[in-house]
Predict the 3D structure of the following.
Amino acid sequence: MLFTELNWTLNSPYPVLITLQLLPLAGALLMLALKDSLRLKQVGLLVAGVEMLLVIDMYRRYNHTTATMQFAERLDLFGPFAYHAAVDGISIVFMLLTALMCLLVAIYGIIRGLEPTSRFLSVLLGVEASLMAMFSTMNLMWFIVLSTAQLGLIGYMLWRWALSPEKDFALTRFYQFMGIGILLLLAGTVALGWNAAHITGQWSFDVFVLSQVPMLVGFQSVVFFLLFYGFTIRTPFFPLHGWLPLIAEHGNIAVAPALFIGIKIGVYALLRFVFPLVPDAIIQWHNYVVGFAVVGIFYAALLAMVQSDLRRLIAFAILSHTGIIVMGLFSLHHLAFQGAVLLSVTFGLAAATLSLMTGMIFRRTRTTRLDKLGGLFDHIPLIGITFFIAGLSIIGMPGTPGFDAVHLVLEASIVRFGGLVTIAAALGNVLAAGFLLWAFQRAFLGSTPEGATSANIEPARPSELLIAGLIVAVLLSTGFHITPLMDLIEMPLESISQLYPGGDAGHD
């Protein structure tokens, strides 16, 4: 059986999942109540810090030698809308990333002086609560409800704290794309619930139940396309990416890390809900998806070449590397599944890092145009080093967590599709990442353009050095010692790969 689970009492002395969901929500309400209290910053950071410690505690208690879902919690509510939460190693990897980045964004938001601070911290904690719930829910309909709430909070952050005169246009595009995605997910979920009611006589949106209900291949294809497009709009995946460059350019940079974590929820959702529920449809259509992924890798890389704004360049680099992740997933191979999950975490952390460092640049220069930047390394060297290491992580250089992940995806791609597709994907990956390094060279090491605003800037603050130092430590430590993360996701992905012929090929 694909899904089995252990009650939380067998893993932990307290219900850790509901605690992870309610703590930031309670913190958000407290932030609103405190308003202009002098202790506001300390309380916000305390909540984010405790959330990080709780996720670490859950990681320590998790038994990675089994594919069983663990820390399971159930509460009967409204029939098919019953609360059912559990996690495996895949969930925990994404939850660790979420807790870390929300803590760092909280620190950055305080540094940046986003006013009112109480409102910013409360919305950020609300985003964290929704993400923790999405990474642990076993109910697909609850996932959609939580996703809608999370997108609403992200949209509010963009509307409230973005300064660009074109933010309204960018926000409109964001809601148009995300609204269509939610509608597609809702249609696919209702179809799954209807099929369960037709077969068993009872509606259900629980993945445990849905995985046991048979479906005709044609019906699977309909559900697959509805869920696939709904999730990949968020990821984002070519050609459903039109909102990302606009939000990256016109949104507030402090919001971007939370957004970049949120878009990785699409990768997680594919593995949690789509791959286990409609395997026959995925086998039927996976080659077409991989074709779009390879095209998207080059399409985004070519667009990255012509960008003059650092934020848009980062957005297209993310789009290009998302193609690598999707290609890994739809290689339907155990090694590629591992690589895709690791790449999602690596790219999520690296992209958020690039955004944070870009925010620190913007705070000093009031611009992210590359023709207005230069000579920054002389003023903010650690920020430059952090930007450089994040760029190397996206490339997949040795010593960064992206190295093993890219290697696994490309190795599985050779097995599934041969050398031509693999070489094309690798060249597109290098091309897109190369322009990130070109941007680093131009902004940090190049000569200061005449009349540029970066000619005389303040050095990094201690809190900024703390953020940069923590990120560098995480990237390098996971790069040189990625085995714990691989052990964490090994068994859950093993059970998924067994659904696909040859998916376990070459795996010991």
